[in-house]
Amino acid sequence: MGAPGIQTPAKADAPAGPAPVPAAGPRDDYQGYRVVPARHPGRWVGTAVVAIGVAAVLFSLFTNPRWEWDVVAEWFTAESVVRGLAETLKLTVIAGSLGFVLGFVLALMRLSASPLLVSVSWTFSWIFRSTPLLVQLLLWYNLGYLYEKISLGIPFTDVRFFEVQTTTLISQFAAAVLGLTLNQAAYSAEIIRGGILAVDQGQLEAAAALGIPAWRRSTRIVLPQAMRSILPTAFNEIIGLVKGTSIVYVLAYSELFYTVQVIYNRTQQVLPLLLVATIWYVVITSVLSIFQYYIERHYSKGALRSLPPTPLQRVRKFFASHATTRSAS
After folding, report:
1. What local confidence, expressed as pLDDT, does residue 13 receive?
2. Could you tell me the mean pLDDT of each successive run of 10 residues in the chain, 329 residues long?
3. Were both Cys, which of 11, 142, 144, 234 would link to 166 (CB 3.0–4.6 Å)?
């Protein structure tokens, strides 16, 4: 007992412990809920509007007799048109191949440490990208006015190994190839240079640290990675070149567009013949687009863990999945 008049202090409260856990209630059951797909009314409205527009265009194409599809079918595989198509493809292959080879050389010159090589490459691209292709073609075709003869020999001497009249050497075909090739090279040089610069410099530094020779660094490390940046724009240039060959009609060279012009000037069937040329250009660019898809897919191996399926693989997967569904049901 405590002393009289002195109160015994009460014990201090015990520290509070963790709150008691409430008893677990019954687990929620979601089996009774119905899964409702997300609705996209705007998408369906847009799809309906576009579908109506496409149907209206197709209806007009097949019901308007002024399109004269019978005339289109008559001239589409005519011998003269096919010959013009062959000349268009020949110009595209020659100018495209030479243009990209020369563009690759110009790109390397632009990336060189030599001020002279850099200046020459920059000036070439500046001149040929600054002047219209039509002007370039006419200039090359009339080169005989500036230089009567073209010779090959030792500069600044009278020694000549080869000499020919300019008008004999620069024919319609030669002028077309020169104009298209040099114009294409100017744009190709910038495309290739941009693709090379897009490669991380750390790749080169790592390869150099491993002692890999410069040539192998360029061909096995830099170029395969640069191709991913080069290819899309390069194929756009090739597709543009296919259509750009039509401008050589000013030289009276018998490519596809000039051939079609000659025919409709004689038959006065302008629109059907223009449709013939249009369809052939669409066919060529569609084939090039298919090649572009597969080549880009090949060079994307280093950037993607798994390559996207090709259209043929998607079709096979679609039919395989539907066949499995039918067999299961």
Report:
1. 52
2. 47 53 56 77 92 94 88 92 94 94 93 92 94 92 85 78 81 92 94 87 80 80 82 89 91 92 91 94 92 80 66 73 62
3. 144
> In sequence order, what are the beta bridge partners of 153?
160
pLDDT computed for residue 139 by the predictor: 92
Q: Do 230 and 192 touch, CB atoms closer than 8 A?
A: yes
Lookup: tokens for 41: 């009314």
Q: How is residue 186 written in tokens?
A: 């100017």
122: its two tokens: 């920059």
Quote the distance between the C-alpha of residue 313 and its chain's center.
22
- As beta bridge partners, residue 150 has 164
